[in-house]
Structure formats: structure tokens, C-alpha cells
Amino acid sequence: MTGRIVQISGSVIDVKFQAGNLPSINEALTVETADGRRVMEVAQHIGHDMVRCIMLASSDGMSKGMEVERTMGSIRVPVGTSVL
Fold first, then answer.
1. CB-based burial label for 81 (10 Å; 0-12, 13-18, 19+)
2. I need a surface site. Which of 25, 34, 38, 49 has the fewest CB within 10 A?
3. What is the pLDDT tens value at each position of the chain, 84 positions in all?
């Protein structure tokens, strides 16, 4: 399931999805840029099948109309033995 970026304001991204496919709060979304995959988290449902997301990295290279993919899960961080 995918959506499209409709607005970018620094690290705040608004994404529109088709009716009935709205991701849940705290769901991780991804977008492919020339520099690789970027991850954002859904922070708010803002109506009209749109969500407001917070980027976890720079939004440089992103633009309106880019395709955003749902992960159907929350943000994940790899943990190695040195962290444990």
C-alpha cells in the first residue's frame, strides 16, 4: 500500500493515501530517494485521507508526488551484542 507526498515542511511530511488505507499512528513509512531509503513515522491523522509524519533523517532530495510505502509495523532499530 502506497501514498504520495503532498507537502514537505522541513522534517514534517504530509502524505495522502487512498480511502481506507490510512496507516496507524506510530507506523513507519519509507520513501526511496537518490541517496537511499528514508524512514518517517506517522504522528497524526489530519483528515482527507492524509497523515502527518516526522522524518527520522534529512528530507533533502524529497519532493511532492514521491511515492511513500507502508511498512505495516513500527520503527525498528537493530541491536547488537555491544548494546545489550
1. exposed
2. 34
3. 899 999 999 999 999 999 989 999 999 999 999 999 999 999 999 999 999 999 999 999 999 999 999 999 999 888 888 776
Q: How far apart are CA 7 and CA 19, in angstroms?
A: 18
- What's the predicted TM-score (pTM) here? 0.89
Are the C-beta atoms of residues 19 and 1 closer than 8 Å to each other?
A: no
